[in-house]
Amino acid sequence: MLSAMSTVEDMRRGNLARFLELVHRERALSRAQLTAATGLNRSTVAALAAELVELGLVIERAPDPTKRVGRPSPVVAANPDVVVLAANPEVDALTLAAVGLDGEIRVRERLETTDLPSPETTVAQLADAVDRWARGELAGARFVGVGLAVPGLVRATDGLVRHAPHLRWRDTPLRAMTEQATGLPAAVDNDATLGAIAEHRFGAGVGVDHLVYLNGGASGIGGGVIVAGMPLAGASGYAGEFGQNRPGIASATHRRADDGVLEDEVSRARLLAAARLTSADEPTLAAALSGSTAVDVRDEIMRQRGILATALGNAVNVLNPSVVILGGFLATLAESDPAALVEAMQAQCMPAAAEDVEIRTAALAEDRLLIGAAEAAFAPLLTDPAGALASA
Q: Which string of DSSP letters, residue by residue, matches 2-61?
């Protein structure tokens, strides 16, 4: 009897998680759509919706009055007041956002710095943001976690930052530090890995089962890979470090770093220097580069785009994706001359592998890493809604 009761309870919890995941992914669905998507009967769907409403995770509203065909079905939507703190620490700034369960960014801040941030300073800023927002813009909201997108190697098992070279963090127990400082459960992962997940779920990679994502940020170039619809993490969670590969550079005059890796040659810092900027967020840098007619800016963009094409060709040959997504300053390089990048990449691919691959820029733009960090923070709640809230 105990076993049977346990099985029924496990099934209920599983259905509850599946239901919430669907609402979170689609932001809002009618009960009729949820019934069709889950294969459950209408009474079970109604009971699950009622339980999630009671837990404060979803809200129900009246159906769209313009859709009058058939029996009206109430709409179930993710509760925007259930939020997580998403963060992306970088060498030049800490970017923070409060992201709702409905996927909307409620509040966003960029805290610029002239010094490399320490882990201690970073977690203190996280705790301060939760406190300020809970007393101000987000009074009444319910924080359920913290997600961090870190430019470095993060051990999947415990959120230990093994090495973030540009931040100079090594063997930093960032998840534990964040949980102690904020009092909230935390998730930590590589920034590009989270960017790939965000673009796959909500951006340029929706519906794509095989994709490669490359992220260009202040700390260099990272990557993420989706294979058969699932993130490729590697044995310890370190997969996707494309920026550490050594690029093929056809002309010696195009090399800027002796024995350098990809992120030494294809570099945001070099683009900032060419544009005569000391610091800039992504939109500002993109506008400065696209609006410049200076020869040295044009030459630097062309040089970096050519080296990037070689790296993309190698990735296509090894992984055979159908889509390559570029984020950050890499998107700016691609948008400077999309046809030239595609042609240069295809010239360095096996013809069969290059036939069906498409290069896209990140649809989530500067929000991609924050959305990815939020997804990591929401994961326990989506896996076991009642259990996650009970243990919080």
A: HHHHHHHHHHHHHHHHHHHHHHHHHSEEEHHHHHHHH---HHHHHHHHHHHHHTTSEEEE
